[in-house]
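Structure first, sequence second, as always.
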């Protein structure tokens, strides 16, 4: 999530001050005061560019800075691409950056090592790139759920065959980890279809390998009951910006999904270790070697076999139009999801799609465990409206004992 959006969603200024103060003390042993808006036009302040989603010192290596933010130049529309490339070229020039920097962050006393760091704000964490060492420390934002960092560490330690940037070090409490810094572009910012198709097939192959190693069959009723209880607990614990009326609406959508399930007395579901956020932005292709990387395993968990494939196929992370995309799957217009079961089945039952939507609601609710949030998530509201629009046809359910 970009810095300009983070500042609208949460009290990011305070979160950054607390998180970065702790980082400076832990790494450099310096107890500096960090003031989000207290910096001056000097070499001892950090500069924040909201649109490029980067925080850096005035003395940073400009070539490396430009390399870090270069992905923002890519756009399928030639005019937009030209404008974005121009913006990057101007915004990273020492004598013009003042036109694009909205915030100067004071760090007192200043730490000289900051001149070689590039800071990337994120949804639950902050990435601090050491340009000299070509490494990156990912730290948990203060007040956020440590489970997201713990998930990243667990996956890398448990399933080392996965194409994830190499883990260098980590905190036993799950508050940070360090990885090799890579130079790569997301799948959706590549224009070469051959490279994109090859990377996507390789990503599928790696996930199928993960599924095969973690597959377990469990009673569907028990799984849904656990999901239901967890969702209700997350709704109850939503931050204070959500009032009772809004919580009741989310519960109503959940009941609607659960009430649409006509479950046979004995039914099992295949659960696997899912990525949790399998989308083009999390499939990276190395700029030099074209090596594949799958990143952002923050939401990994045991879910239905179809979850990752349906996240990708329905583009549910951008929920506008979700109902139409789900209907395309129901009508078998879109079968792009079928890679997850090696193409054995060419259709999905109503039950499998409903379970996917309940799982996805659970992920969205988990994302909102942010006590510093100051604005409600528009995406959840759009998601609920889209789900309410889905017209379920009559299905003959597949059963397994």
């Amino acid at each position: 999530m970009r810095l300009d959006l983070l500042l609208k969603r949460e009290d990011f200024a305070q979160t950054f001050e607390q998180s970065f103060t702790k980082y400076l003390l832990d790494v450099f042993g310096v107890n500096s005061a960090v003031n989000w808006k207290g910096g001056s036009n000097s070499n001892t302040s950090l500069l924040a560019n909201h649109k490029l989603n980067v925080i850096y010192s005035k003395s940073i290596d400009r070539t490396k800075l430009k390399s870090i933010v270069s992905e923002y130049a890519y756009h399928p529309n030639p005019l937009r691409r030209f404008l974005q490339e121009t913006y990057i070229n101007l915004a990273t020039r020492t004598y013009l950056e003042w036109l694009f920097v909205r915030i100067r962050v004071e760090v007192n006393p200043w730490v000289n090592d900051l001149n070689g760091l590039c800071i990337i704000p994120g949804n639950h964490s902050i990435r601090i790139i050491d340009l000299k060492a070509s490494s990156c420390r990912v730290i948990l934002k203060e007040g956020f759920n440590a489970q997201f960092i713990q998930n990243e560490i667990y996956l890398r330690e448990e399933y080392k065959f996965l194409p994830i940037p190499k883990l260098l070090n980590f905190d036993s409490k799950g508050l940070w980890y360090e990885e090799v810094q890579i130079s790569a572009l997301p799948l959706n910012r590549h224009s070469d279809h051959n490279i994109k198709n090859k990377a996507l097939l390789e990503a599928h192959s790696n996930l199928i390998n993960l599924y095969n190693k973690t597959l377990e069959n469990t009673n569907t009723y028990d799984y849904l009951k656990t999901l239901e209880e967890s969702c209700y607990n997350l709704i109850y614990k939503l931050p204070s910006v959500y009032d009772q009326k809004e919580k009741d609406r989310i519960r109503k959508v959940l009941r609607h999904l659960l009430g649409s399930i006509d479950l046979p007395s004995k039914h099992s579901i295949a659960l696997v270790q899912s990525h949790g956020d399998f989308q083009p932005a999390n499939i990276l292709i190395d700029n030099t070697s074209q090596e594949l990387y799958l990143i952002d395993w923050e939401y990994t968990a045991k879910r239905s076999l179809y979850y990752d494939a349906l996240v990708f196929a329905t583009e549910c992370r951008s929920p506008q139009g979700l109902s139409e995309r789900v209907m395309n799957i129901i009508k078998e217009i879109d079968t792009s999801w079928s890679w997850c079961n090696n193409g054995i089945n060419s259709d999905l039952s109503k039950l499998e799609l409903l379970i996917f939507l309940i799982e996805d609601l659970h992920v969205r609710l988990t994302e909102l465990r942010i006590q510093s949030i100051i604005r409600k998530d528009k995406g959840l509201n759009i998601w609920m409206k889209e789900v309410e629009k889905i017209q379920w046809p009559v299905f003959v359910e597949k059963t397994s004992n």
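Margin note: Confidence is low (pLDDT under 50) at residues 395-401.
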